[in-house]
Design goal:
Length: about 250
């Protein structure tokens, strides 16, 4: 009687992967990067849960993040007036010192007004026209990009919502809210003397640049290189736990 056994030969690893293992960052370093991201991006609930499960101290006052969370949620919900008021309550210089950011918020507010007034055939466009005349028209001549953005936005009143060119359709895409919210978050962080973005973002850009340069120079690299920030393995914390907190609870 003959028996067959499945091959148990382990595929040889690329030399680069073995070198990566030799310089793998510590668990504490990984935890620091993750916590920095959660705090910088404004996820206090996820930060608290991560700190608890990873058993790491929190040096930041997580309650101070709540103001940024409320502003972000207002923008994501299309309530731009509330967001502007909260920003000014936090520090009016944030918008006073950044005309492009202020204009971006006001243009988004105009987009939301147009979205509401064009949602039905009998919608009244007067509020949108009044807002554009009073808030945006005086600012538009100060910057050619402002004028172009205003003209493009006003075109939403001319063409039917279901037949818009891609540049106009993009104005009504919820992604614009996220873009402006990110701009606001960075401005608040800078105003508070903090980093404008989470360290992980700059690290990923640096890693991408390094890999690109290495491949251009025909270095011996694997076909694909993973980033390697696996929460379950590196920090002992469930990735699902953290991501559910981020996606399901912005506060």
């Amino acid at each position: 009687m003959t028996s067959s056994t499945a091959s148990t030969t382990t595929p040889s690893r690329h030399p680069f992967e073995r070198r990566v293992d030799d310089v793998k960052p510590s668990k504490a370093d990984i935890n620091f990067v993750i916590m920095d991201y959660l705090i910088n991006e404004g996820y206090p609930s996820a930060a608290r849960k991560f700190a608890f499960e990873a058993n790491i101290p929190t040096t930041e006052d997580l309650t101070s993040i709540q103001e940024r969370v409320e502003i972000r949620n207002a923008i994501h919900g299309g309530d731009i007036q509330t967001a502007i008021e909260k920003i000014n309550e936090l520090n009016h210089q944030i918008l006073d010192n950044s005309p492009p950011l202020h204009f971006a918020l006001l243009r988004l507010q105009l987009v939301e007004l147009i979205r509401r007034c064009t949602s039905s055939p009998s919608g009244d466009i007067t509020p949108a026209l009044t807002f554009a005349t009073q808030q945006l028209a005086p600012r538009a001549p100060t910057n050619p990009e402002f004028l172009e953005d205003l003209e493009r936005t006003m075109a939403l009143l001319i063409f039917p919502p279901d037949n818009l060119a891609p540049p106009l359709k993009a104005l009504l895409d919820p992604h614009l809210r996220k873009t402006v919210a990110n701009m606001v978050n960075e401005a608040i962080l800078i105003n508070q003397g903090a980093r404008r973005e989470a360290r992980i973002r700059s690290l990923v850009r640096l890693r991408t640049w390094a890999e690109q340069k290495a491949r251009e120079q025909k270095k011996d690299l694997p076909a694909q290189i993973r980033i390697g920030l696996d929460l379950d393995y590196e920090s002992g914390v469930s990735q699902d736990t953290v991501m559910q907190e981020i996606n399901g609870n912005n506060g």
